[in-house]
Amino acid sequence: MKPMKTFGQVLEWADELTLEEQESLVAILQRRTRDQRRVELIQTVKEARQEFKNGRCRSASPEEIVRKTQA
């Protein structure tokens, strides 16, 4: 099993990269982060749909949601 890298170690290693490599790293990390968020959102939507299907929640208009969040 590989030893875990600390956040600080990763930052230090990134500092050793060329500017172009750092830009590529940022782009790759942004794409991966976006993809992970998309997966999380899809899972959340699936769970919400299942809850609705099972009668554990009900639909609401945007106005109802705003009213409840401001109360």
What would you say this structure looks like, in words?
The protein is an all-alpha fold. It has a domain of 36 residues. Helix content is 75%, strand content 0%. The longest helix has 35 residues. It starts with 6 loop residues before the first helix and ends with a helix. The model has no long low-confidence stretch (mean pLDDT 93).
Features:
71 residues; mainly alpha; single chain
Strand content: under 5%
Give the tally of β-strands: 0
Relative helix content? over 70%
Number of helices: 3
| Element string (H = helix, E = strand) | HHH
User: Which class do the helix and strand fractions yield?
Assistant: mainly alpha
Major sheet summary line: none
Instruction: Outline the low-pLDDT stretches.
Output: none
The overall average pLDDT, rounded, is 93
Described by the principal axes of the CA atoms, the overall outline is elongated
Q: Which value, in Å, is the CA radius of gyration?
A: 21 Å
Distance between the termini: 51 Å
